[in-house]
Design brief:
- This protein is an alpha+beta fold.
- It has helices spanning about 25-30, 35-40, 60-80, 90-100, 120-130, 135-140, 145-155, 160-165, 170-185, 195-200, 215-235, 235-255, 265-275, 280-285, 285-295, 305-315, 330-340, 345-350, 395-400, 410-415, 420-430, and strands spanning about 10-15, 20-25, 200-205, 205-210, 320, 350-355, 360-365, 370, 375-380, 385, 405-410.
- The protein has three domains: about 10-185, Hypothetical protein af1432, CATH 1.10.3210; about 235-315, Growth Hormone, Chain: A (Up-down Bundle); about 320-355 and about 410-430, no CATH class.
- It is built from 21 helices and eleven strands.
- The strands form four sheets. It has a four-stranded mixed β-sheet with strand order 3-4-9-10.
- The longest helix is centred in the middle third of the chain and has 22 residues, at about 235-255.
- The N and C termini lie far apart (about 75 Å).
- The model is unreliable at about 360-370 (pLDDT under 50).
């Protein structure tokens, strides 16, 4: 592979996060314009979070371009500082960053737990499948180039530095989505000094490290990630939207199994619900497909599906209440109450639990940090590497915060029931 060279035909894309995104390589420009990449314009980056933050309806396409741009800036900084970065892989790294999310499902991560295969697997399938435009463009670089891109995305590429740039604790993916999601939602907690992070990053052998003078910048970045999870990704309204999305599709899947779903449902969505979806079917699905299906389903003869679809479209979400594990003994009573009010508890009484790992640098029971999932500080004076949390109290605090967030979601009518409120009060008073 040759080192990436600039062309005279520079493309410039205006971006709210990075100012401008620059494209010098016609291969990358061609990839951006493939139908598989253009599909990402029709997929929300934050899934159902727009129900909590109306501005948070930016696309997965914009994020993919942002990841490419962050990698471009980092590689440029490495070149200016004459760091030992393998520049023969510049193009490969940029392309892997651009394509890392090309396999996302509609509503991004909101739908992922409904699927049997994570989006990274679909991304690799898009890259490897000879029928896709992405594969065709990649193979025009050189025979077998698509396989190299696939290996980077699935983290099997033999040069760890390249993988770390696309997927790691301090990778281009996280650096872009935290900034982008913060700008879109208006939540200031997700901002940090990206230019400074790029300035203090270095490639050292097989690792991306941070000069020890940049520790406070890394702390700001990890704290931004911590606050974005609490304020946006795990926001109770965001989760309520995801729960409704999941229950709508769960009910639809059950009706498909009984051949009772409307014939107006798109064939690709039917295949998705049956679990026998092909790559072609999958790539024809986007947010618009689901919205169209929900519009049909809201007048379905199945009252549960109709109500759930209407709730999602009209933002009539379930109401949440904190539900620690010690309340599970009361769950059967709540389910009975939900049923008496007129709802099926299988769809209208949901306990949601989300993990909260903001810096997952430990691997295994011996709690030893490894370079694959740690951020390392580099001290030039003695050529020493130090795992960042060992010298940072703020990072120690968020790394130790592993408690899950548990909430119970029920219809507002149930929430307003005196019996429900008494149950919560009795539990809070120790059952007296």
């Amino acid at each position: 592979m040759k080192r990436l060279e600039m062309t005279e035909d520079e493309k410039v894309i205006k971006d709210p996060v990075h100012g401008y995104i620059y494209v010098h390589d016609p291969i990358i420009w061609n990839l951006m314009n493939t139908k598989e990449m253009q599909r990402l314009r029709r997929i929300r980056q934050l899934g159902a979070a727009y129900l909590a933050y109306p501005g948070g309806d930016h696309s997965r396409f914009a994020h993919s371009l942002g990841v490419y741009e962050v990698i471009r800036q980092i590689i440029g900084a490495f070149a200016r500082n004459n760091y030992e970065w393998p520049h023969e892989y510049d193009r490969l790294t940029l392309i892997a960053g651009l394509l890392h999310d090309v396999g996302h499902a509609p509503f991004s991560h909101s739908l992922e737990r409904f699927m049997t295969m994570r989006h990274e697997k679909w991304s690799v399938m898009v890259v490897r499948d000879p029928t896709t435009e992405v594969h065709e463009v990649l193979e025009s670089v050189s025979p077998g180039f698509s396989e190299l891109v696939a290996e980077v995305i699935e983290k099997t590429f033999p040069v760890p530095l390249i993988v770390a740039m696309v997927s790691g604790q301090l990778d281009a993916d996280r650096l872009d989505y935290l900034m982008r999601d913060s700008v879109a939602t208006g939540v200031d907690y997700g901002t940090f000094d990206l230019a400074r992070i790029i300035r203090v990053m270095e490639p050292r052998k097989d690792r991306l490290v941070v000069r020890d003078s940049g520790i406070h910048t890394v702390e700001a970045y990890l704290l931004a990630r911590y606050f974005m999870y609490w304020q946006v990704y795990f926001h109770p309204v965001s989760r309520a939207g995801e729960i409704l999305l999941h229950t709508v599709l769960t009910r639809a899947r059950q009706l498909v199994e009984k051949n009772e779903l409307s014939a107006l449902t798109p064939p690709a969505l039917l295949a998705f619900l049956r679990g026998d979806v092909t790559l072609g079917d999958y790539l024809s699905l986007d947010d618009a497909t689901l919205f169209a299906a929900f519009t049909v389903w809201r007048v379905s003869g199945d009252s549960i599906l109709a109500d759930l679809a209407s709730r999602f479209l009209d933002r009539r979400l379930l109401k949440e209440v904190a539900w620690p594990k010690n309340r599970d003994s009361h769950l059967s009573a709540v389910q009975q109450l939900v049923k008496e009010v007129g709802y099926d508890p299988n769809y209208y009484c949901i306990v949601d639990e989300t993990g909260t790992v903001y810096y997952d640098y430990y691997l295994g029971s011996d709690l030893v940090p490894t370079h694959e999932n740690a951020i390392w500080l580099y001290r030039k004076s003695d050529d020493r590497l130090t795992e960042v949390s060992s010298v940072s109290r703020p990072i120690q605090a968020i790394a130790a915060d592993h408690h899950p967030v548990r909430r119970l979601y029920v219809p507002r009518e149930v929430f307003r029931e005196a019996r429900f409120q008494r149950l919560l009060e009795d539990e809070a008073n120790g059952g007296r």
